[in-house]
Amino acid sequence: MTDATPRHRLEAIYRAAIDAVQPDRAVRAGLDEASLDVHAELHLLAIGKAARTMLASAFEWCAAKGIKPAGGVCISHASEAGRLPAGFVTVRGDHPHPRDGSAAAAALLRAYVETHIADGAQVVVLLSGGTSALIGAPVGALQPDAYRECCEVLLRSGLDIHAHNALRRQLSAWGDGRLASALHAAGARATVLAISDVPGDAPASIGSAPCIATPASDGDNEAILGAARLTDPERSALRQSLGIAAAYPAGEFATIPHRIISSNRIARDAVAAAAAERGLRTVQMPELLTGDAHACGITIAQQLLSYTASASDPVLYCWGGEPVVSIPANAPAGGRMQALALAAAGALQAAGARAGGITILAAGSDGRDGTTDAAGAVIDANTWDAVCGTGGDPAALLNAYDSHSALRRAHSLIPAFASGTNVNDLVIAIVAPVLLA
Q1: Does 194 reside within a domain?
Q2: Of 172, 191, 175, 178, which is closest to residue 253 (Cα–Cα)?
Q3: Is residue 28 part of a domain?
Q4: Mean pLDDT on 54-58
Q5: Tell me, what's the pLDDT at 147?
Q6: 405-410: long-range contacts (C-beta < 8 A, 24 or more apart)?
Q7: Is residue 1 part of a domain?
Q8: What does the alpha-carbon distance between residue 377 and residue 334 come to, in Å, rounded to a whole number?
Q9: Beta bridge partners of 281
Q10: Each residue of 362-414: pLDDT tens digit?
Q11: For residues 416 and 373, what is the distance between their CA atoms, to the nearest angstrom?
Q12: 3-state DSSP call for residue 89?
């Protein structure tokens, strides 16, 4: 692929940024800093969308140090984990909706901790985004159907990831420090190396906090429930499930030290470096992408339009974060980055000739946006009209949460791929000078 067009340049910069945040160097550096006892029995628990690549990097580090891990688990969203050494087990969980696969993964993790990890063992938890769903199972007496319905409701609640996980971790078998409690009960010494997929990199919001206790009061829960876009029956069902889960706290010593080894900030720095190699100056936007994805797309388009008049040379603008889409039940495939992109396309189309120099890429760092076959999309001022030209109604499709089919009509989608990591979403845009009559 050449950088002949703005789209090609943006896609090349995006892929360069993803390459820069691959877990290999970060995991090895994190293990160096962890000061592990090379003589103690070592177990590796890799959970999340980056589990396979993080585990492979840990194997390389161990080989270089002459350490042979006693065993461990690999729980990811991929069906193949590659060949693992003796003592390691692998399973595929479900994402983004926890189902039977996630319940099986949660059970496998429990069985491994209870039967393989003994007093004095050393455990490294390799944690990445997607963990909440991949080992999603109900805590205590909470029934699987009720738990799964709660997860579905939270996904379409419009809550940001911090508020979302503040409730979900209380409902989950391994959330809210319960893995830390289990490891402490086994007598293990543990550390967590985490790839952050949440704005601000708060450990309590990564993977529903399996290794950090985060007690919540009824007042905290009520404040979140009150802010969520829920029906009264949905709010009542969540409140009831939280009440059941409250009988099963994580217990004492439910926190393990965390090291954040990769994040969205590092990805955005990599965007700037890749842009500089292509002769582009980068402006890092200070505000994180949060809130409604449609609103974020419109705001981004309006910001970029305000820069076109002063542009004398092409400039790249970069955002990171994780907006949300409050989708109704049974909505078509979409994805928050595609929703953002289509909303931005509408704002650019409405601006007419002023938008002629703007091209926007919006994509997930994990290589997959929502449950679709796309990582995201690249749009410009012509995208909206391109959808119309195929007989589609982009406004209606946007309102129906069907951004995926709209962007497919315009040939704007970026094909999904397994990135090997997960550090939130990236939006990068080129603003080139436009000569107006």
Answers
A1: yes
A2: 178
A3: no
A4: 95
A5: 98
A6: 405/332, 405/333, 406/342, 407/338, 407/341, 407/342, 407/374, 407/377, 407/379, 407/383, 408/374, 410/345, 410/379, 410/383, 410/386
A7: no
A8: 11
A9: 315
A10: 999 999 998 899 999 999 999 999 999 999 999 999 999 999 999 999 999 99
A11: 5
A12: strand
Q: Supply 372's token pair.
A: 């679709």
Q: Whole-angstrom Cα distance, residue 137 to residue 362?
A: 31
- Which of 230, 262, 294 marks a domain boundary? 262
pLDDT of residue 3: 64
Determine how many CB atoms are found less than 10 A away from the CB of residue 388: 16
Owner of token pair 């974060």: 321
Summarize pLDDT for 44-54 with one digit per residue, the tens: 999 999 999 99
Residues 225 and 295 in one domain: no
- Spatial contact of 117 and 45, defined as CB atoms under 8 Å apart: no
Q: What is the DSSP code string of 156-179?
A: TS---HHHHHHHHHHHBTTTTTHH
Same domain, 329 and 346: yes
Instruction: Answer yes or no: do 303 and 397 share one domain.
Output: yes
Q: List Cβ neighbours of 203 (8 Å cut-off, separation of 6 or more).
A: 192, 194, 209, 211, 212, 258, 260
State how far the Cα of 335 lies from the Cα of 186, in Å rounded to an integer: 40
The number of helices, as runs of H, and strands, as runs of E, in the chain is 16, 12
